């Protein structure tokens, strides 16, 4: 039965990574949308009619002296206007806002199922459920987890790497039982050092 319980621990560890990876995707997209908005505001402010008129008045002596200066100035204004328009179109066409919402929903669902696994592990450790009941709960949760993976948005390798860093993971695509135990509350950890050395579980890269 220890093998089945270790499988549940492995699934719990993967869920921890999945939840954190979606959180990092949320941070990435939030930062991206904020930066896009900031650039839009700056460009639209610069290219607004009032500012352009004021700059034209201030630089009129220079334009009278150097005729080419006026040409360069107008080219710069046209360029900035085109860039500002491009950012506006990009913002309208971008799916970042929808992706951000989808990642928030996914993170919330992974958090919910993570807690379900944690309760299952606690109940089994406290002998509140039998081996047969553990397997029944495992199968039901696995179906729920599979459905969640099918529905949730894709994350990037950068999101995953940031999640690994946040969870203080240094090994490439592997984690052992001791690491899985570290995801549990302190009072629930009881794997011996002997088991730790002899039980390394391979983890696939989350996509």
Short description:
The protein is an all-alpha fold. It has helices spanning about 1-45, 50-65, 65-95, 95-125, 130-150, 155-165, 175-180, 195-200; strands at about 175, 200. The protein has one domain (about 1-205).
Walk me through what this model shows.
By secondary structure, the protein is an all-alpha fold. The protein has one domain (1-207). It is 78% helix and 3% strand. It is built from eight helices and two strands, in the order H-H-H-H-H-H-E-H-H-E. The chain has helices spanning 2-46, 49-65, 67-93, 96-125, 131-151, 157-166, 177-182, 193-198; strands at 174-176, 200-202. It has a two-stranded antiparallel sheet. Helix 2 (49-65) runs antiparallel to helix 3 (67-93). The longest helix is centred in the first third of the chain and has 45 residues, at 2-46. The relative contact order is 0.17. The model is unreliable at 170-174 and 192-207 (pLDDT under 50).
Could you name the key traits of this structure?
8 helices, 207 residues, mainly alpha, two-stranded antiparallel sheet, disordered C terminus
Largest sheet: 2 strands, antiparallel
Kindly report the spatial arrangement of strands forming the biggest sheet. Answer: 1-2
Number of helices: 8
Give the integer mean of the pLDDT values.
Answer: 78
Shape: rod-shaped
User: What's the number of extended β-strand segments?
Assistant: 2
Low-confidence region ranges: 170-174, 192-207
Return the string of H and E elements.
HHHHHHEHHE
Estimated structural class:
mainly alpha
The proportion of residues forming helix, as a percent range, comes to over 70%
Q: β content, as a range? A: under 5%
Gyration radius, in Å = 27 Å
Distance between the termini: 30 Å
Number of domains: 1
